[in-house]
Amino acid sequence: MDGREQLTSISTDTSAYQRRRDEIAARAATYTRGEAIPAVAYTDAEHAVWRLVAARLRERHSALAAPEFLDAAEQLGVGNEGIPQLQDVADRLDGLTGFRLQPAGGVVPFHRFCGSLADDYFHSTQYIRDGATPFYSVEPDVLHEVIGHGSALADTRFADLYRLAGQAVRRVETDTAIQFIAKVFWFTIECGLIDAADGPRAYGASIVSSYGELDQFRSAEIRPLDIADMAGVDYDITQYQHTLYSARSMAHLEDVAGGFWESCDEASIERLLAAEI
Question: pTM of whole model > 0.90?
């Protein structure tokens, strides 16, 4: 029996799920940065989704997640017992790396989402995916945010990369530059890999929070981490990635991606894109 069969009785009414999702998401509209994050009274069914998916992810992480990510996740210390309250996660992150969380109602425009990283704020949803499809979510949910991004933000080196990406977005103005920074963010922070003796391992939040993509990512075309090469590669956030990039090490990731974000501007990004034409 797979996880979907186990949860058949938990949620089969998509309209009921959407109403619940919208109810939780609406709280973000009235939130003011710096306030305590309101708690959500999650249902037993919602906690059951977290328990199932989190446990399955932990099994995959031991063999397929980068050691650097595993160490960061251990620092955050979020368990499989049920959905944590966002304020508790925020307090833990603040003590570890200075990052704080801000409730989000859904996908936040990249320039605002990424720009907030420069201020040590990460926009996070609080609703959890539909129990009818526990191993798939069409948009970021609290499981993706906490297990994926939250774990990385518990590590100072990963947190510094998030900050540098935020500073880069704040520094540029053109849509072209913002979109290219978003592409680099996608291929690193969201879908990045690090070389290991047994093959590339994942640290990117979208992969480490996806039970299905953890099983599939090694079948993608995996290229050495190269910012200029990314200029000619398209990506689709709604499906598993056909092309991924793997850094040789954490230090290599910091040098390449961190170095790009630290120094990029409109002119340097225009040169990268022009070289690809």
Answer: yes
